Amino acid sequence: MRRSRSATASSRIAALFCKTMTRRQKKNLRRILLAAALAVAVVLIPAEALPTVWGGESERGLLRLLLFLVPYLIVGWDVLLSAVRNLFRGQLLDEKFLMAISTVGAFALGEFTEGVAVMLLYQVGELFQGIAVGKSRRHIASLMDIRPDTACVLRDGEDVIVSPDEVAVGETIRILAGEKVPLDGVVLSGESSLNTAALTGESLPQHVASGDRVVSGAVNLGGELLVRVESVYAESTVSRILELVENASEKKARVENFITRFAHWYTPVVVGVAVLLGIIPPIFDGNWADWIGRALIFLVVSCPCALVISVPLSFFGGIGGASRRGILIKGAGYMEVLARAHTVVFDKTGTLTHGNFRVTDVSAADGDAPALLALAAAVEAHSNHPIARSVCEACQKTTLFSAEDVCEIAGQGMSAGLNGRRILVGNHRLMEENGISYIPHSGVGTVLYVAADATFLGSILLSDEIKPEAREAVAQLKSCGVRRTVMLTGDRVEIGEAVVREIGVDEAHCGLLPEDKVAKTEEMLTKTPGLVYVGDGINDAPVLSRADVGVAMGALGSDAAIEAADIVLMEDRLSKLPEAIRLSRRTMRIVRQNIVFALGVKGLALLLGALGYANMWGAIFADVGVMVLAILNAMRTMYIGKGKG
Amino acid sequence: MMKKTWQLEDLDCAHCAMKMQEGIAALDGVISASVNYLSARLTIEAEEKDMERIIREAVKICHRIEPDCRIVL
Predict the structure, then answer these.
(1) pLDDT digit string, tens, across residues A527-561
(2) Does the ipTM surpass 0.85?
(3) CB–CB of B37 and A126 under 8 A?
(4) Which domain, by its residues, includes A557?
(5) What b/e sequence results for A307-329 when a residue is b if at least 16 CB atoms lie within 10 Å of its CB, and e otherwise?
(6) pLDDT score at A305
(7) Which among B20, B36, B61 is the top mutation candidate for probing chain A, defined by the most A β-carbons within 10 Å of its own β-carbon?
(8) I need a labelling partner for A560 at 20 to 30 A (CA). Which of A94, A231, A387, A424 fits?
């Protein structure tokens, strides 16, 4: 199973190299092939078969040199040219300069085949690298193929095709089947399903009808839609996502900075050692050719290309692959922290729970629960409070009573006149304030007490629904190596603890005001490395920006969240969080493999080279071979197997 | 202060990108500069009045470091 997947991955990679070359790369490939053929031909000609005028050995050698120079110059003239140019500009440690020195050196030592081979393979490596990087760039660009080209706007009763950035807020646009939604808006008429896979990674189409919000970048699968534009193009979801992904690679990971610093020192040191190796030992043993040969091996291995390219390429691919699954990561640095996340802190409302209240229990003093609910709903119908709306939603018979003289009592509830009675609906304080003796409700959640005049009628329990996948997501976090999960909430302790029991979070801090959440997070930050904060981004922007990594959930269409967070989960699905951690860990694993592999092989080649056990061929593998393998490995980050993740 | 981004065509070596970044960042009036090899983008942050002169210099730097590479203006 595993083998077949990696087999398809490698055949896919092989296939894409053939067809995605630019003209310049094709020209280079022809040049390399020509030079390689010539070099093979020259190698195959036996020295004795060379014609001579005087018949001298030295003349044969000279002719052989000239023959080898033909493929060498065909494949390497540009390298030599730029090496000479760099020489005058003082850039001695340029990789082209090093290649020129080592190949010329090989020729000087009479190792013609090796000299041509180093240059040939260096060019093969360059070509390969160019194709791989070009491919990655295009792959990421195609992932982000969500940019709408045109918008069809209704002006004076006519359809006008314009660029999306020419459409103003409030205008009406027409979206035909198969077209991309160009701007965020609300459906005025029509019914269809939208494919948001490019935005969220969710392949299930989303049904929309009149009154529903549509986000730009989604593809209209069904019928025609008329949409009222709600934001200009520059502020639409699609522009924000594109901007975010395109700028993602600017926030560098620590390991990237390490590689940059390493590359800064590695080359000069290796070259320095090469010079010493080529000069000092032969002073004592006089074996100049041998020691200079060893020094040349050093020069060939002195390029840190494998690391300089493969490490950023891994992150680039990882971020691109994640964005395809609806996980937007603003920089490689965040991926690094996420991979070793120690503590995950959740905001309760809107993250672990849906953030909307539902009536879960009605207990009436006279046993008639529907009547009690209807009575409460008649009063609550006059309020916009989320709790009031939930009560009305739970009760379909609001028209039974008509309330009058309604007034809202801040922090307590509502009061209204109904059929000549004074109805009170509110919390326990409202009851106490009015001297009504009530039976406290034992359930966990927000309790509304209802009274008529001075008589207690009953109570209604509302609870915030826990997301069905919350428990599974928390368990998965544990299996991805997260040590501690914490929940922060402004709710009362009983509510918080009930959620903790249900979901399996390690600890909860309840009764926190928004500023307490910031303080609590800061306190935890000082104690734990790798603190991830997950919120809905609506009112926790300060905490999101304070944490090591701030993750905003369900941010599709929420600008504030996209702005404040380091990682944005486009869909409101908790399971995306462990997925993001797994993707980060996979990317980091590939980065580490490349670092260890490249440094290991290069170190070995340097050691064996210095001791005289490695020849030029070993050095070529340590340079070009390692680079090609590291790039292929890095490209794996882009391709995430379906179902795995 | 403003921030502008350009696309780079035929940026083929990571090393050169690093050198271009160093060169452009050292120009007079540049607050920050970044050359991203993988996304092939050059971003310069500078005062608006300096921008035109800076990008002219940047074009020269890029040409000197990698003759094939072109800033798409």
Answers:
(1) 888 899 998 776 777 888 888 999 988 766 566 77
(2) no
(3) no
(4) 328-353+467-579
(5) bbbbbbbbbbbbbbbbbbbbbbb
(6) 78
(7) B36
(8) A387
